Amino acid sequence: MTAYTYATYVTALSTEMVVPSTDVNFIAILPTIITNAELRLYRELDLVDTTVRDSSATLALSTRNFTLPSTNGTFIVCEQLNVITPAGTTNPEAGTRNPLIPASIDTLDFLWPSTSGSTLPVYFSMIDQDMAIVGPFPDQTYTIEVVGTTRPPSLSTSVTTTPLSVFFPDLFLAASMVEALAFQRNFGAASDDPKAAVTWESHYQALIRDAKTEEARKKFLIGHNETPKAGG
Fold first, then answer.
1. Is pLDDT of 222 > 80?
2. Which site in 35, 61, 80, 178 is 20 to 30 Å from 68, CA atoms measured?
3. Per-residue buried b or exposed e for 19-51, using 16+ beta carbons within 10 Å of the residue's own CB
């Protein structure tokens, strides 16, 4: 299937919904359909394309709190923190990456309750969506490289393509139709066509199994001729 741009996606969606693309109600609900479909797909697929590296933030001297940067988007999942040495090195490629080991907050509080023994951090723990603590306390100002999952900008008139519209156009349309049928009230037994939602959801489930296989192959999690286990 050919990749969608925003314009071709809107045309395809309105055609499947049998609604004019200029309909005021369709235009009003369109951003919600797109957002909900994108969120579902990004959560289920865990795309390689949504993983970024950001080294724009630093640890403060003798302060264990570290706020995740947002230069390249808000991190949804923090997968890895790398302390860059020597201190003062801002480009990870010009220094050495020292991966921090995930640990519990209780462990860090117990082993390093104060700045005593400050040195190169070895462990980290997430304390909320945007902040981590490290242990031991840093003895210098180190650059931190954050590796994790972000959300790409949503498809719109100003963002005319996304990883989903380019690489998974059929799946993106199916997810959108599942959302669109809620707008058209085709989810319940008393709806105009209650089977429509079931049909599109079944189509979506078939497509996402294949998409998960491709993503697993990109990450070398399975061989080229293997299929992910159910629910994987």
1. no
2. 35
3. beeeeeebeebbeebbebbbebbbeebebebbe
- Residue 213's φ and ψ, nearest 5 degrees, are -60, -45
End-to-end CA distance of the chain: give it in Å, rounded: 25
Q: Identify the bridge partners of residue 52 per DSSP, sorted by sequence position.
A: 148
DSSP conformation letters of 106-161: HHHHHH-SSSTT--S--EEEE-SSSEEEEESPPSS--EEEEEEEEPPPPPSSSS--
> CA-CA distances (angstroms) from residue 173 to 1, 166, 185, 187, 198?
11, 12, 18, 18, 15
> Under DSSP, is residue 69 helix (H, G, I), strand (E, B) or coil?
coil
User: By the 8 A CB rule, do 160 and 63 touch?
Assistant: no
- Measured CA to CA, the distance from residue 152 to residue 64 in angstroms comes to 29
> What distance in Å separates the CA atoms of residue 74 and residue 93, rounded to the nearest whole number?
23
Which single residue is written with the structure tokens 């304390």? 127
Q: Are 163 and 151 in contact (CB under 8 A)?
A: no
C-alpha to C-alpha distances, 219 to 49, 51, 128, 139, 222, nearest whole angstrom: 11, 12, 27, 36, 8
> Tell me: the pLDDT tens digits for 55-106?
999 999 999 999 999 998 899 999 999 999 999 999 999 999 999 999 999 9
CA-closest candidate to residue 135, choices 166, 104, 164, 90: 104
